[in-house]
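Below is how a single chain appears once it has passed through the pipeline. First comes the sequence as given, then the structure the pipeline wrote out for it. We keep one example in the README because the format questions we get most often are answered faster by looking than by reading.
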Amino acid sequence: MPWLQLKLTTTRQQAGTLEDALLSVGAVSVTLEDDADQPILEPALGETPLWDRVRVTGLFDANIDTAAVSAELGMHLDDWMPDHRWEALEDKDWEREWMRNYHPIQCGERLWICPSWQTPPEPEQVNVMLDPGLAFGTGTHPTTFLCLHWLDKQAVEGQQLVDYGCGSGILGIAALLLGARHVTGVDIDPQALLATQENARRNGLPESVMPVYQPEQCPALEVDITLANILAGPLVELAPQLSAFTKTGGKICLSGILADQAQQVMAAYAPWFDFEPEAQIQEWVRITGTKR
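Resulting structure:
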């Protein structure tokens, strides 16, 4: 189905008004993007930040009268109309477009993450066959790659783990294929739990070796390795709980942390853990340690 996009440039203060107006004149969706290369990497708790300059895009059916929609939009905005332009959106199979650009990733000496629709480049290695669905975790983001690279170096055979914030299940499934005995997956998003279960089945793993829970249903645990690839704020808040999951002598692997947040996260876990040197890719770091 062909579509038209109306792209407008505005300020942070006006973005909400413009979004509401676009929906009022028939936009089927509205997207807000940075218009000035101003990164926002992690909001503070309770904060929903926007960029100073915002590109707002309304998506419309291609059969609309663009002049009429523009005029109606101007009326909703009391004749205030920011810089804008109409564009045709190329009709594509967007799912297949994404699939074409997702390729196998090597994460260490043994471990590969492979799209489920492709043949593994090294079939004799440990290959996680993955379709993330609507959940986070493909191995391409530095935070996930850092955890996978660390897992590849661990002797996980026969061990029990918890994957807190399991997303697509990528970390827990990798641990099981590397020889772990049992992984508990935890996530606040029901879609993530479904994606984890489906990916576990895709990799030939029985449901019994990787049960999944939302946090409030998660049973008491004491495991050899605790994995948590989320964000610095939640990691700090969860420090007592994630530390309690980890048995004495066990290991913890924390990711989703910006370099300038590392000391804050380490301070939250310092009462329980001795740390190894941090690992970093771009602005992201991984923190690992052993429980005293």
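The CA atoms of residues 14 and 54 lie 9 Å apart.

See the next section for the split statistics.
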